[in-house]
Design a protein that fits this description.
heterodimer, A: mainly alpha, 0% strand
């Protein structure tokens, strides 16, 4: 996706093709061969050092910790904490014990939540982008308005939703119960089973504009001639959308769905601001669950093991997804 | 509301789809859908704005669509109920520094990846790409322990400091910035910087005189994005800050006391915190969309 596949195109007036032969950044003032070969590494150095510092070292430590018996007593000198082998992993995956059972529950909740949220975000974003494809009065204004949820800092938006979902003084209960009379008595939205709906609503509200942005960008790459040809052949608006717009968006959608999936699955900010440190069981997303295990119940070792398991799961899913979509793309090209 | 208006496209996003008139069903579907969606989008915004102008009794009892009396009192009180100004300064410093660091470092790295071939390039790009998918929770505990250890060993207080928080924010802003800038630099024609090299620029000269100016929209997009994410970050901020380094993300929780939540003040503070970011975003959204096209969609 990102590697430079741009092949040498600048062969016209130069003896070497800078950028495509190793170390060929030949400025007349810089003849040293070693320096030329070293240059890319020199440019990368700050990024490499920082990546090492903020990603690699913490990850290695995180993996190490998952094999140690870390409690609030041994955490002070965690290097000296005793090894516990696979104990932390056994605790995490033993679905007959409370910890494993809770993790599995949280995993399923997260999966259901992610599928629904990504699906709805995609649906709203795509529909809005297609409906705003043509020019009409008010289009620019709507486009700006639709970006507001995306631009608002997460916690201010979620705090506002938390206010709206309040039991006694919230807008949602006021409308549903007082004004429309749809419920017998005011419901609880931030505890109990309804919390899943509340979380989903907030997540979709916050997430769909990103889908909208990406799909809008994708629509630009569809050649106008396709629509003109289709219109000449007598295809109506709806048919054009089904036959041209949606299929053309496929490569964009593949990236979009993956990114949305990763963000939603890993989302911590939304449930944390909506529910606080401990989420209700029906909306116990995995990142909150790991946080709770690690920092609230002080099971640092188990928390680390859960993080590693989460990472493995994400790696496998992403790998499979990339494999499937790239294969389909290849066969589609042929 | 006719889609057949002959008006020329006003922005690059305007790509009129077809020359034929849209059918009635399409127009009605569009009207209904867009109306509902606008309502959904604006509902919390309305609640935020209207509640921030209400007296406390209006937000403590049953919800009221219209305030019983308008007051700007919450906007005055927010600064004294919690040290909002301090949180503001902390957030600006942390988000600003994280943005500058990640964009500057990413410019160099992305230039190397986009313009040179070297051993380990693939490993580097794949690593950067994959670190983006890691959940923040994965890094939280290790970084926490590293900071505490460094603090114990050297006396440098990373844990709870702004510097420590800036460093942790690089975990998400740096890979994103590198990834997006590679895509953006790839879209800048090579002939441009090659010409600069021929004209006697060094590689860094070519980068700063040609590639960076040509990629300004992408760089702005990356910076805006990095700033927004850092400004809205909650997880690291809630663990890695103390009373003096608290950011807005954590500080806004201070309006809830044991007995009561000052919802009107919460909403006023939320608005104050949001306005700079939203305004900046809406001003620069054109760049952001352009950046997304080059970086994410390709």
């Amino acid at each position: 996706m990102t590697t430079t596949t741009t092949t040498a195109t600048a062969e016209k007036d130069r003896r070497t093709v800078s950028g495509s032969t190793p170390g060929a950044a030949r400025g007349p003032r810089r003849p040293g061969r070693i320096r030329r070969i070293g240059l890319p590494y020199l440019l990368l150095l700050p990024a490499l050092v920082l990546e090492l510092l903020v990603h690699l070292v913490p990850m290695v430590i995180g993996i190490l910790m998952s094999f140690k018996a870390l409690t609030r007593f041994s955490i002070r000198d965690w290097g000296a904490a005793p090894w516990s082998g696979l104990d932390n992993y056994k605790i995490s995956v033993d679905i007959n014990a409370p910890a494993g059972e809770a993790l599995l529950h949280s995993f399923w909740v997260t999966c259901g939540f992610t599928v629904l949220s990504v699906g709805l975000c995609w649906l709203l974003g795509t529909a809005a982008a297609i409906f705003l494809q043509d020019t009409f009065r008010g289009r620019g204004l709507l486009r700006t308005l639709f970006l507001v949820p995306y631009a608002l800092p997460v916690y201010t938006a979620v705090i506002t939703w938390a206010f709206m979902f309040q039991h006694d003084n919230g807008l949602v209960n006021h409308v549903l119960h007082d004004q429309l009379g749809l419920t017998d008595k005011p419901s609880f939205w931030l505890i109990g089973d309804n919390s899943f709906i509340a979380l989903l609503t907030v997540s979709v509200w916050k997430g769909w504009p990103f889908a909208f942005l990406v799909v809008m960008a994708g629509l630009q790459n569809i050649p106008k001639e396709l629509y003109e040809a289709a219109a000449l052949d007598g295809a109506g608006m709806w048919q054009q959308i089904r036959r041209i717009t949606l299929p053309s968006l496929r490569p964009v959608n593949q990236v979009l769905v993956l990114v949305l999936f990763l963000w939603t699955f890993n989302d911590f900010n939304t449930p944390y601001v909506l529910f606080g440190k401990a989420a209700p069981e029906a909306a116990d997303l995995i990142s909150i669950h790991v946080y709770q295990t690690t920092f609230a119940t002080w099971n640092f070792g188990t928390g680390s093991a859960m993080s590693v398991l989460l990472l493995l799961f994400l790696l496998v899913v992403t790998g499979l997804y990339l494999l499937l979509t790239s294969r389909r793309r290849k066969t589609a090209d042929v | 509301m006719s889609s057949t208006a002959p008006a020329p496209p006003r922005s690059p996003m305007a790509a009129p789809r077809s020359p034929m008139a849209a059918p009635r069903s399409f127009l009605w579907a569009r009207r209904i859908f867009l109306t509902l969606l606008t309502g959904f989008v604006l509902l919390p915004v309305y609640v935020m704005v209207s509640s921030s102008l209400k007296p406390l009794q209006d937000v403590s009892g049953t919800f009221r669509w219209l305030p019983s009396g308008l007051t700007i009192r919450p906007y005055i009180d927010i600064w004294s109920t919690v040290p909002l100004a301090d949180y503001f300064v902390n957030s600006v410093i942390v988000a600003g520094a994280a943005t500058v660091c990640s964009v500057v470092i990413a410019v160099f790295a992305a230039y190397a990846v986009s313009r040179y071939r070297f051993r380990g390039k693939r490993v580097f790009t794949v690593t950067v790409l994959s670190t983006q998918m890691f959940p923040g929770i994965l890094f939280l505990l290790p970084l926490f322990l590293i900071y505490v250890n460094i603090g114990n060993a050297t006396g440098i207080a990373l844990f709870g400091s702004r510097g420590g928080l800036i460093l942790t924010y690089l975990t998400f802003s740096l890979p994103f910035s590198i990834w997006m800038l590679i895509g953006y630099f790839d879209s800048v024609p090579r002939d441009l910087d090659e010409a600069a090299l021929v004209d006697g620029c060094g590689p860094l000269g070519a980068l700063f005189r040609v590639v960076v100016p040509a990629a300004i929209p992408g760089i702005v997009a990356v910076a805006v994005y990095a700033f927004m994410t850092a400004w809205g970050e909650v997880l690291f901020a809630s663990v890695m800050t103390n009373d003096t380094t608290r950011t807005l993300a954590v500080g806004l929780q201070g309006y809830a006391t044991q007995t009561e939540v000052y919802w009107n003040q919460v909403m006023a503070a939320s608005l104050v915190v949001s306005v700079p970011v939203v305004a900046g975003f809406l001003l620069l959204q054109r760049y952001l969309v352009a950046g997304l096209t080059a970086g994410a969609v390709k």
